[in-house]
Amino acid sequence: xxxxxxxxxxxxxxxxxxxxxxxxxxxxxxxxxxxxxxxxxxxxxxxxxxxxxxxxxxxxxxxxxxxxxxxxxxxxxxxxxxxxxxxxxxxxxxxxxxxxxxxxxxxxxxxxxxxxxxxxxxxxxxxxxxxxxxxxxxxxxxxxxxxxxxxxxxxxxxxxxxxxxxxxxxxxxxxxxxxxxxxxxxxxxxxxxxxxxxxxxxxxxxxxxxxxxxxxxxxxxxxxxxxxxxxxxxxxxxxxxxxxxxxxxxxxxxxxxxxxxxxxxxxxxxxxxxxxxxxxxxxxxxxxxxxxxxxxxxxxxxxxxxxxxxxxxxxxxxxxxxxxxxxxxxxxxxxxxxxxxxxxxxxxxxxxxxxxxxxx
Length: 360
Description:
Layout: E1 2-5, H1 8-32, H2 43-51, E2 56-61, E3 81-86, E4 89-94, H3 99-113, H4 117-130, H5 135-147, H6 151-164, H7 169-181, H8 185-198, H9 203-215, E5 218-220, E6 229-235, E7 238-243, H10 249-260, H11 264-272, H12 278-295, H13 304-314, H14 318-330, H15 340-354, E8 355-357
Parallel strand pairs: 1-2, 2-7
Antiparallel strand pairs: 3-4, 5-8, 6-7
Helix pairs in contact: 1-12, 2-10, 3-4, 4-5, 5-6, 6-7, 7-8, 8-9, 8-15, 10-12, 14-15
């Protein structure tokens, strides 16, 4: 059952857009290819599911109470990991400080911390001889050269590290700095964006990225995707959805179905398990309602995250939006399991969608 605790004007608007949604959302699902044609989600069906439910769903829209964004993500990735490819499958291996290298590695680290870079390099090379192809060690060796202002040799080592392991975020980060020094603005930005994707929440990379983009006449506003909804479950058979703007109502209803309606999640995933990443099915389905509620609304949004989503839809970069905006903040290590080509597509999304020219 659904109880709409909306004002009269909001309820009338919602009744009108229900039927427009049927056609528009079906077309959009087909464009995104989330489901086969015979499994397309009809928004009228979603409403009926919630209306006929044994659970009471209460809908409220708060126009007066401001939405407090308390989302903060602090998870970081670790540069010890590297990809292990078996056919089309990617798993992660880890650089272990085994007994045969432990002493030399610790000696190298000690010399590096004391800024005795040439001595540190000797011991990093010893470890690399025993662990050939280890990107992390190549990056550290590059740092010993960069610290002595031998930028050309440092760049060679960073490139070696990236060739050995594309997910070495430190190598991309430090290579960006050298490209910036050389005046290669496009290359510097590309490498730093890749480093950011590989360690989405790293505050130092974000600070560096803001400085580099500003230097190049661009602005990076580091917002996180934050749906303007709250869901409460005060009783066993009662769920309350509060939206802080009417444009999030259908998105919130989709979330209710996925999170609380018995059997709904299993039904949707069973139909799509072989075609789509399970976690992306729910997100894409809810984003459909979010996008098209905005498309048919007379009041155009000024919400930056919605505008970015709309642009991503237009440029067919919805998957990149989901990975960068939704997955990576909560689980940044997802990036480490992606193929190089996908990481580069996310970088393209970021540069095209998240960077804005500074108005003079």
